[in-house]
Design goal:
This protein is an all-alpha fold and 415 residues long. It has two domains: 73 residues, no CATH class; 336 residues, no CATH class. The chain is built from 21 helices and no strands. Helix 4 crosses helix 5, helix 6 packs parallel to helix 14 and helix 10 packs across helix 21. The chain is globular. The two termini are 40 Å apart. The model has no long low-confidence stretch (mean pLDDT 90).
Length: 415
């Protein structure tokens, strides 16, 4: 262990503490209005890891020299933060959102139950499973935007909103396991371990689908008396020309197809921005700010997380398969699950059972905290205004996510 590794571990711990205490800064802003702007800044969850990553780079420059600090920052891989930013903006564009909303509404009308209730269930069950094909960040963006006016609003008991948020986060995390390319923790090991989509569907996907359906059913039942077609602020569907919608979907598909090639998907994004400007009569304002903040959060996590391998990898490599499953679930709450499985992919000689347990635990625990799974910051950014004080308490999120996490764990461990 070097001095900079120890400093990085301490800063990582401080970043975690800052994340959980973010709501406290908002209270301080109300208490000390003279410094409200500063406290609001520190209370923005999306800036936490970027802020502490800056502190790490400065500390590295002091301890190891400026050249080493710059070299470290430049050798990190920022593909995932860039991808999440782009996919959030494209998926949240009005033509894509209206297309998915129309699909959900069509299916909901066929089911012989109250349409609004079915729509909520589909957003919590079907959309996370669609994430296996359009990627988890895109599914999170679409689900959050459609659910926001329906259940993440004033008038819904706060505990129910946290329970629903926990279900959404957990279902997104496990719902992407039908394929080998949509869930970040799966993507980290798929090539190394030769796990293709057929393997994922037969070993993970069907179990996850059962857990997703059960979680969505339970929370929708609890919410049923609060769900209304006439919910305040619920958007009315708009008609988008089919060609415009098709072009947006092609942009979405192109970004997904080149998710590992930032030069390509960023180029597509530039064309996308030009197209939305040319046909802005069919657009809502793009969520550029929200996307950039989420990308900043994930980039900070990349910088800070890159220095945690020295203590994380020995823990992962020392655990037996069953202990590894529960350990991975717990560790995911304080580390990004993709980082955890990546460390596992570096361990030589892991048994097939251990590989399964590591990934199963990582995806099962992906809803416990905002940092547990890459799409979670997107959900927080898009839904925070539906909670008291426009902030999401992460202790409350943890409690809300525990029941659906247990369901996911049982499905992946026992079936």
């Amino acid at each position: 262990m070097t001095d900079i590794q120890l400093i990085a571990a301490v800063l990582f711990g401080l970043a975690l503490a800052h994340t959980f205490a973010a709501k406290t800064f908002e209270r301080l802003a109300d208490r000390f209005p003279r410094h409200a702007g500063l406290f609001h800044f520190f209370g923005e969850v999306e800036v936490v890891f970027g802020l502490w990553a800056l502190v790490l780079i400065i500390a590295m420059a002091v301890v190891s020299g400026g050249a080493e600090a710059i070299k470290y920052a430049e050798t990190r891989t920022y593909t995932e933060p860039l991808f999440v930013f782009v996919i959030m903006v494209v998926a949240a564009s009005k033509p894509v959102l209206e297309t998915i909303r129309a699909l959900i509404s069509t299916v909901a009308k066929v089911v012989p139950l109250r349409t609004a209730v079915v729509r909520v269930w589909l957003c919590l069950a079907l959309v996370p499973l669609i994430g296996s094909f359009i990627t988890e960040p895109a599914a999170m963006t679409l689900a959050a935007l459609m659910l926001g006016p329906l259940i993440f609003r004033q008038g819904i008991p706060e505990w129910l909103k946290y329970a629903a948020l926990g279900v959404l986060f957990v279902n997104i995390s496990i719902g992407g396991t039908l394929t080998s390319f949509a869930a970040p923790p799966v993507l980290m090991v798929a090539t190394t371990w030769n796990w293709d989509s057929a393997y994922m569907a037969t070993h993970f996907g069907w179990k996850s689908a059962l857990a997703v359906g059960l979680n969505a059913t339970v929370i929708t039942f609890l919410l049923r008396t609060h769900i209304s077609n006439d919910a305040p602020g619920a958007p009315k569907p708009d008609r988008i020309p089919p060609l415009v919608a098709l072009i947006h979907l092609l942009f979405l598909g192109g970004v997904v197809a080149f998710a590992h090639h930032p030069v390509i998907f960023m180029g597509l994004f530039m064309f996308f921005l030009g197209f939305t400007k040319a046909y802005e009569q069919y657009q809502n304002p793009l969520i550029l700010k929200e996307g950039l903040l989420v990308g900043f959060f994930l980039a900070g996590l990349v910088v800070l997380g890159g220095m945690q391998q020295w203590w994380l990898q020995p823990i992962v490599s020392s655990l037996k398969p069953t202990a590894l499953f529960f350990g991975a679930t717990a560790l995911t709450a304080i580390t990004d699950n993709a980082a955890l499985t990546y460390l596992g992919s570096l361990i030589a000689g892991m048994s097939e059972e251990a590989k399964y347990m590591l990934v199963a635990g990582a995806v099962a625990g992906g809803g416990l905290t905002v940092i547990a799974n890459a799409p979670n910051p997107a959900g927080v950014s898009l839904l925070r205004e539906g909670f008291n004080d426009n902030e999401i308490g992460f202790g409350s999120l943890l409690l809300g996510a525990l029941p659906p996490t247990v369901v996911a764990m049982l499905a992946l461990f026992l079936l």
